[in-house]
Every structure is written in structure tokens, then in C-alpha cells.
Sequence to fold (440 residues):
Amino acid sequence: MRLSAIALTGLLLLSGACRAQEATIKSISGEAEVKAAPATDFVAAAVGAKLKGGDYIMTGFESTVVLAFEDNSEVTVYQLTQLRVDEFLMKENRAKTQLFLRVGTVQAKVKHTASVRSDFSVVTPTCTASVRGSEERVTYLPGFGTTVEYLEGLGLAQDARGRAVLLRANDTAKVSQSGSLATPGDVAQATAITDLTPQGAESRERHGSLGFNRLSIRPETDPNNPFSIVQQIESQRSTSSLIFRYDLLTDANHTQTNATRGQ
Amino acid sequence: MTSGRVRIGNAVLAILAGLACGAPVHAQSAFFREVVLKPRATQADGVRMVSILLGKRAGDLPSDTEFLKTRGVMPQDWKPSAEAQLSKGWASYLLVQALGERGGAGARVMGWSKRRAYQELVYLQIMPAKGGEHAKLTGPEVITLLDRSAAHRAKRQSRPSEQVSQDAGGKPEGKGK
Fold:
């Protein structure tokens, strides 16, 4: 009896600390359908309907849907798009949202506030695009691959091979259908490029926190979460006095190593 | 016996409730839902895709075929099949006609062929460049074609002066065919 009470309390605490959120359909223009997670059939979408983890939303030709998330993020789903809400969790002051874009175009506007930190990412079959306190547009069209455009703020685009590119406002990254990042012209616009492969991570550990030749990723940083790397860059710039270097891809084959001193 | 009747009654009620709650799906959405899962698209998918682009939101293969033939998009002797796989050249031919593309010198002198239509759409970045006009399209690629074709049409309509100059015989800048 006592054990059951303890277990129940634990579950309640756990559910309070990490609870699944819902997204609401804010507006619909044209035709849209949703599929709730356990169901197998799509039904017509309606304004005010809630989407939770595992649910699909699909838009028709010349149709648009706007989704509002509880962390104040807003996602516009453009025509001919199939999107799945993979994960939407609120843990303490951190909102983690992951959307899977099967086909089509979405534009995410993520509002970062002091009280809620948003980890927002859009995953396509060839790319993961992370966004924080900014606006991005992600398009995945089979045959052409993924295009990630940052309209505002800062974010990362990571290809299927583990390479990532840090993007700022008006930067564009393309990931081909085969899963390789970027045409040279697009990478040249980007601020930095890093290697998130396991080999890269080992190299950084060997070099320690001084004298690394890639973007610094501490051992505790999760390579599967590009968002944490953006955080890392920012925190190093603001708190460290160490010189750190990053590689800027200048064309298809050459990298230029740059150095910057933290404040 | 009684519990069996109760179970059947519950099942009927559940079906009726499901029918009452689930709003009807849209006709064109059913096409997108199915085609996105197909590893190989069919000619019927291509016909449906081009019909949607031209504003016919619902229809079956015979009515879509008739629609495209009436509009002059599909040659009268074509007999699209629901079983035949959709090639890039076959879809390209319908799309250049539907979009009203004039093409380069070859197309203007000799008319459109599947090969020329495919090359034109690759140039316009509507068709993925991998493969040739005989390569088969996947279901998701059909959605890509529709999305890119609609975007191309919208872009062209927003720049009417360029279209006028092309219609008058001008060649788009950078046309390297």
C-alpha cells in the first residue's frame, strides 16, 4: 500500500516535471486533414483541433495551416505537406519540439523567452534543422532534398552524415537527396561548419578545452542534439576568454580556419 | 448469448459514433495520402496530378483523361493506364503542355517530345535531374512536381513582362540548351 502511494507520487511528480504538450490548429486555408496517433485514417482538420505527439497533419493543393504551440512557437504548414509531430514535451523551463517533415514546406517561428527555453527542430529524411528564438523555413521535396532558410536568428542544419552548418539570418543550406550538405555557394554564406561525427568528437576530447581545431563540443554535449551545440558556441563566446577556432568552408574542398576570442 | 448481443450492439454503436465524429476527408487529399506512400507512381497518378494543377480537384482516370484531352494537354492517341509506371518523360510532356511552356528553339521548330519536355523541366528545376526521360517517378516525386510546377506558374504570373518577351521569341537568360 505504502509502495503504491510512493509510486503514484513519483509518477505524479514525473508527469509534472516532463509533460506532453499539444499544438492547436490556429487557422486553415483550403484543405487539411489530421490523423491522430493510434488511428489509421485521416479526417478533415478543424480550427481549434489539438495535435499531440505522433499525430500527422496534411495539407492539400493551395492550402495552408497555422499551428500554435504552447511555448508560443508558431508553425505554418504550406501546401502539399505531410508533417508529423514527433515530440512536444515541456520539462521544467525547457520546451522540446521535434517535427518530422515527410514532404513539403513548413515555416517555424520560435519565440524564446527567459522563462521557457525552446529546443525546436524540424527533421526531414535528409536533414535536421534546429532553431532557437528565430524563424526558419524548411522544404523537403523528394528528388531535390532539403532546403533550410533562416529568416531570422540563429540555428543549425545537420545532414544525414553528421556534418552541420551554423546559420544566421538570410543564410540558406541545402542538403541533397543523398544526404550530403550543401552546394559550395550556400555553405560560403554560413558562419561556420563543424563535424559531428564520432571521430570528430574523439578528436576534440583529445585536444581538451584548449587548442581544439573544431567548434568546441564538450564530452557531455549530445551530438544528436544540434541545438546544444548552438548553446555551446554562445556560452563560450560570452563567458570564456579562451581563443577558439572554427572552420569556414570556402569552397567544396578547402576549409579556412578562423579564430575568435571570447569576451 | 446475451453478452454476444451486447458486444455486437456496442460494435455497431462504436461504428456509428466514429461515422458521426469523423468529418469526411477531401477528395484531392486522398490522392496525396496514397501517392506519397507509393514507391512507383503510375500514369494515372500523373494524370491526376496534372488535372489538379489545372484546377480539377476530383476525378477518376477516364474523366481526368478526357479533361486533359479536351484542354489539349494530352495527345488524343494516348491511353493512360492505372498499371503502367509513370516515366519522367511522360509526366514532363503533360506538364509542359499544362504550363504552356514554349521551350527553346528545338521545341518551337519541331514541337515537344518527351525528351525535350524532360530537359525543359530539369532546366526549370521542376523535375529532379537524376535519371533520364525513361526513369520512373516515385509517388513522393509526383508531389514534388506538382509543388514546383505550381510555384513556377505563380512566379511566372508575377512577372508578366518576362513571359511576354519569351512569347515574342526572346530566350530566357542563361538558357544553355
User: Anything to note?
Assistant: The interface with chain A takes residues 22-26, 28-29, 32-33, 36, 52-53, 57, 125, 127-128, 130, 138, 140-141, 143-144, 146-148, 150 of chain B (CB under 8 Å). The CA atoms of residues 52 and 128 of chain B lie 20 Å apart. Chain B has nine helices and no strands. The mean pLDDT of chain B is 80.
